[in-house]
From TrEMBL:
A Pfam family the protein falls into: HEAT_PSME4_mid
Source organism superkingdom: Eukaryota
UniProt xrefs under Gene3D superfamilies: Leucine-rich Repeat Variant
Sequence ranges assigned to domain Proteasome activator Blm10 middle HEAT repeats region in this UniProt record: 130-516
Gene Ontology CC terms, in alphabetical order: cytosol; nucleus
GO function terms (MF aspect): peptidase activator activity; proteasome binding
GO process terms (BP): proteasomal ubiquitin-independent protein catabolic process
Name of the protein this chain belongs to: Proteasome activator Blm10 middle HEAT repeats region domain-containing protein
Length: 522
């Protein structure tokens, strides 16, 4: 019984007062089967529902595990409508939920929304769920049934909304709708293939939505770009019109439009660079960042990284080279403030994950020289100075991101990597040391762990001629799960030897130094 095995494995770690409890609940939310047929309910939620409800009812510490638990309850309620009797628990449920809202009693006050997903999950759990289709869901399902009727209409509304300065909220609403019908836009089907004509104009037209003054608009714009670029290949197919004779008029038009991929990527990066520069300049003299500024890292940074990763892992070599060069030129000319380091280093992370060989070939030696020059041209107090050196810290942040590359690629730069650690391992500045520590974690994980190395659904040669292969015909296509052949990194003997050498050279001596200080303070 899978449910019982999961419970037996994770129950010993269920301590609501411990720091690992949120992680345990996250594992339960991922792996507990909640959608079993009625004849197997005794092997499913009946084994744990009462126990989990008692925990939720009786433990009152404010922690993220409560949100995870509500997510579990809502999922099991959603998948087992009519099979669970919630009546005995109804009063406790509503009492606890009302208490969780922290409603003001006798005075006006604002309650910080610590758990943004709390209300939707509670609603889903209580009604389990009263079916009410939203507009975007309706458009999604209708676009599957009759794309030729839905897609042109929404695209037309989108281009009208771009120029509408009196109702800017319409832009956000339509972008959200477009996100839900992205697959129907980009894919070819026997009944509808005209949607591909809109792909490049759509990508270019939404770029003004990346606006630092409106995080909501920026967020939905980046989400649309991410969804579309996840399903297409950024390859200039314009030469295919002179090679192939079997192209339809629509395919010819789409192939010609793909020549604008480079312009789109350039403009996208320019807008991201502008956000980085403006955000960095705003706090250039600040020591710390305000909590209200976290939207840049929490909301924007992951989406920007994902978009660039989707581009570089499925683009042609010429486009990758120009993208890499543009990012390198920008990063090499900047010493970025702490506020924007995450979003800027995310660009490096995307390059490393998308094409580690080419990225490290050009970027790692450059960063190594920058770090070495910094030490050579500075006084001997650089390691012992507690004052943050923004330039050195930035180089170390980029260095840490480069060590996310595959272990077999990192082996080619073993001496260079060891040299950087020899110079920096004992630095005392907090920010620089955190970057070095992150570099250690990334290096050891890259060398010693098993992980996917190719996330593409279609493994294609992006530089292949178009005689027998046309990339646009793969856009948005569904994948037969039985035919997917994931590629994994398996640590080699050389990589494990590198790990042993690194641990012996750096970690053991550092642990010994900590012990010496501990004994001196006793």
């Amino acid at each position: 019984m899978a449910t019982q095995e999961i419970l037996d494995e994770l129950r010993p770690q269920m301590c609501p007062m411990g720091g690992s409890f949120a992680g345990v609940m996250r594992m339960f939310s991922y792996f507990l089967p909640v959608n079993l047929p009625p004849n197997l309910h005794h092997q499913g939620f009946q084994l744990w529902l009462s126990e989990f409800f008692n925990i939720w009812q009786n433990i009152y510490n404010q922690d993220v595990w409560r949100t995870r638990l509500i997510d579990i309850f809502s999922s099991v309620a959603w998948h087992n409508i009519g099979y669970i009797d919630w009546e005995p628990w109804m009063s406790q449920i509503f009492t606890r939920i009302l208490r969780g809202f922290s409603l003001p009693m006798g005075k006006l006050q604002e309650t910080p929304q610590r758990y943004p997903h709390f209300v939707p999950e509670v609603a889903k759990w209580i009604v389990a769920m009263n079916y009410m289709e939203t507009a975007v869901e309706a458009c999604h399902y209708l676009s599957i049934l009759r794309p030729e009727l839905i897609i042109p209409c929404i695209i037309e509304k989108h281009f009208l909304a771009i120029d509408n300065i009196t109702e800017p909220h319409r832009f956000t609403s339509i972008i959200t709708c477009l996100t839900h019908i992205a697959r129907q836009i980009v894919q070819q089907t026997p009944s509808y293939s005209q949607g591909q004509i809109y792909v490049l104009p759509l990508l270019i037209s939404v770029l003004p939505g990346i606006d630092l003054n409106d995080f909501k608009k920026t967020s939905v714009t980046l989400e649309l770009l991410d969804i579309i670029l996840m399903q297409i290949t950024c390859i200039d197919c314009s030469s295919a019109v002179n090679i192939r004779t079997d192209l339809t008029e629509i395919e010819r038009e789409v192939c010609l439009s793909t020549s604008k991929f480079e312009d789109f990527i350039n403009e996208f990066l320019n807008r991201i660079f502008h956000i980085i520069e403006i955000s960095s300049a705003e706090i250039s003299n600040a020591v710390t960042t305000d909590a209200s500024d976290n939207k840049l890292d929490i909301d924007i940074q992951p989406k920007v990284t994902s978009i660039l990763f989707n581009i570089v892992q499925q683009c042609s070599n010429p486009i990758f080279q120009k993208t890499r060069e543009k990012i390198m030129n920008f990063l090499s000319s900047q010493c970025l403030s702490p506020k924007v380091r995450d979003i800027a280093s995310g660009l490096v992370r995307a390059l490393v994950k998308g094409n580690p060989v080419e990225t490290l070939k050009y970027l790692l030696p450059t960063i190594y020289k920058s770090i070495e020059n910094k030490f050579n041209n500075s006084d001997s107090t650089l390691l012992t100075d507690y004052k943050d050196d923004i330039e050195l810290t930035w180089y170390l942040v980029v260095f840490a991101e480069l060590l996310r590359a595959r272990g077999d690629v990192l082996l080619n730069y073993k001496q260079l990597i060891m040299s950087v650690f020899h110079q920096c391992i004992q630095i005392v500045n907090k920010n620089s040391y955190n970057a070095v520590a992150k570099a250690v974690v990334n290096l050891l994980e890259s060398l010693s762990c098993s992980y996917p190395v190719d996330y593409r659904l279609f493994v294609i040669n992006s530089d292949e001629t178009f005689d027998n292969f046309l990339p646009i015909r793969l856009w948005g296509q569904y994948v037969d799960i039985d035919k997917v052949q994931p590629q994994f990194h398996i640590p080699s003997i050389d990589e494990i030897d590198f790990v042993y050498e690194f641990v012996d050279t750096f970690l053991y001596p550092e642990l010994a130094r900590l012990n010496e200080k501990r004994f001196k303070n006793v």
